[in-house]
Amino acid sequence: MPPRWPRKPDRKDPEFRKIDDRMNFAVHVAIFAASNSGVWFFRTVQFAQWTWSVWFTGSWLLILIAHAIYVFLIADYSSDYYGKS
Questions:
Q1: ∠ CA(52), CA(38), CA(71), 5° rounding?
Q2: Of 11, 14, 23, 45, which residue is most buried, by most CB within 10 angstroms?
Q3: How far from chain centre, in Å, is Cα 4?
Q4: Residues 67, 25: contact at Cβ < 8 Å?
Q5: H or E segment at 61?
Q6: Would you state the torsion angle of the CA atoms of residues 85, 10, 73, 80, taken in this order, to the nearest 10 degrees?
Q7: Which residues contact 49 (CB under 8 A, 6 or more apart)?
Q8: Interval 34-72: pLDDT, tens
Q9: Can you tell me the distance from the alpha carbon of 66 to that of 82, in angstroms, rounded to the nearest whole number?
Q10: How far apart are CA 14 and CA 79, in angstroms?
Q11: Dihedral sign computed on CA atoms, order 68, 73, 78, 81
């Protein structure tokens, strides 16, 4: 069951921005896991000789780590970010 928001969703609301960014990150992780598990399954079973799979996974993992650093460490969710206190 998806989380419910008690009021009208608005990107100017710092709490909503925070939960929205974290849900987007969770979707990013899910797509990464599903895609890479498929790539590595076919590589392991040797239906395909995909030498690019290492670069594909490594590059995407770096992007995923950068996304995590932004969402959990850098993003500013203070209420005065959009000019309201």
A1: 85
A2: 14
A3: 20
A4: yes
A5: helix 53-69
A6: -10
A7: 43
A8: 999 999 998 888 877 888 999 999 999 999 999 999 999
A9: 24
A10: 6
A11: negative
